[in-house]
Specification:
Layout (H helix, E strand, L loop, with lengths): L2 H17 L8 H21 L21 H14 L10 H16 L12 H16 L9
């Protein structure tokens, strides 16, 4: 233990000698052992404690498997080359997005894995269209028929 701890023990023993009529010299080692055990327990407790975080109600991004999003990114790169960067953000009618997504969905359901035009997996196109739909017509948008 450090000299600071030794100094604290000496002060503690001196205080006990001064204030406790039951003090005996043979108690020094018990006092030291009690002090070191308490110090060890406090150190262990401190090491186990974690910083507070108030994340209730916040998105838990660790649930997402990002490698699985690669087909989406590949389709977005394909779209960037074909239409320009972020062209999709300009806006689209919900029917256009849903029609595109459904074409890729039915092709996939019929057993076609790869889109003949882009040579990319249909799942990436489905994911891209789902993302575009969420961006333009997500849950905070009134989707009731007009």
């Amino acid at each position: 233990m450090s000299s600071e701890n030794d100094h604290q023990i000496s002060r503690m023993i001196a205080t006990i000698k001064e204030w406790s009529p039951e003090y005996r010299e043979d108690m020094d080692s018990d006092i030291e052992m009690t002090y070191y055990n308490a110090l060890r327990e406090l150190t262990e407790k401190k090491n186990k404690e974690k910083a507070l975080r108030y994340n209730q109600g916040k998105l838990k991004w660790s649930l997402v498997h990002f490698k699985s999003l690669e087909p989406l990114v590949k389709v977005m790169e394909y779209g960037m080359a074909k239409y320009g960067p972020r062209d999709w953000m300009k806006g689209m009618a919900r029917e256009v997005i849903l029609d595109c997504m459904m074409r890729h969905m039915t092709a996939l359901m019929d057993g076609e894995e790869i889109d003949p035009e882009s040579q990319l997996h249909h799942i990436g196109h489905i994911m891209a269209n789902a993302m575009m739909y969420s961006y333009h017509h997500g849950v905070d948008v009134d989707l009731s028929p007009k």
